[in-house]
Amino acid sequence: MGTADAAEAIPSGVYRIDLGGGWFYLGSACDLKRREAVHRSTLRTGNHFNRVAQRVFNKYGQYSFTVLGRYPANEIIAQEQILLDEHAADMKCANIAPIAGNCQGVKHTDHTKRKVSLAGKGKKTSPETRAKMSAAATGKKKSPEHRAAMMGRKCSPETRMKISAALKGRTMSAEWRQKIAVGNTGRKHSDETKAKMSASGIAWRARRREAAAAAL
């Protein structure tokens, strides 16, 4: 068996789906043939788990599946992450989750939601469990982490309009701007802060991609 035949014998690897208009989706699978069939079927029926890819497919109707490399199953996540990192700044990369193997930010289809709902029907929480939950919530103080997470909550359009109206016309004095500049001089961000800034940038790009796809 030649080198090419040996590579073809490996069923797992990483792939790229071209969806038209320059848009593409990157992924990995233990069974590339099966994953290709799932992508093709769900896109054509309008049930694809990635809403950006679905919107682009709905617009252009194009679908081209390309195997970029075949690797053992225990290596495909790492290889997919390399691809995602390379294309992180590309606004036409339809991937929503920035971490390979992570579905964060992915919304389930109505069909999947119904299946989850049906699976959970009939399940009742015991009185003991409800009592524990109630006791845990009573008088519970929010941790610094929880408060920080709340700070990142999105404001409603009405709230943003009120803030904008309140700040409209306000300008910083030269003295205040100078204080800010002096305070930031030589300032270094911690690794944690850098990670948060990076995550914020990733989330911003994901929102831009979704907005661009929605506008098609």
Strand content: 5-15%
CATH superfamily of one domain: GIY-YIG endonuclease
Low-confidence stretches: none
- Stated plainly, the CATH topology of one domain is called GIY-YIG endonuclease
Summed up, the helix count is: 10
Q: What structural category arises from helix and sheet content?
A: mainly alpha
Q: Report the order of strands and helices.
A: HEEHHEHHHHHHH
Tell me the radius of gyration.
24 Å
Quick one: CATH class of one domain?
A: Alpha Beta
N-to-C terminal Cα separation, in Å?
47 Å
CATH architecture of one domain, by name, is 3-Layer(aba) Sandwich
Question: Helix amount, in percent?
Answer: 40-55%
DSSP, total strands: 3
* Global geometry: extended
Strand order of the largest sheet: 2-1-3
Sheet with most strands: 3 strands, antiparallel
What does this structure look like?
The mean pLDDT is 77. The protein has a three-stranded antiparallel sheet with strand order 2-1-3. 54% of the residues lie in helices and 10% in strands. Helix 3 packs parallel to helix 10 (191-214). 16% of the residues are buried. The protein has a domain at 3-117: GIY-YIG endonuclease, CATH 3.40.1440. The longest helix has 24 residues, at 191-214. The chain is extended and about 70 Å long. The chain has helices at residues 3-8, 32-45, 51-60, 76-86, 110-120, 127-137, 144-151, 157-167, 174-184, 191-214, and strands at residues 13-20, 23-29, 64-70. It is mainly α and 216 residues long.
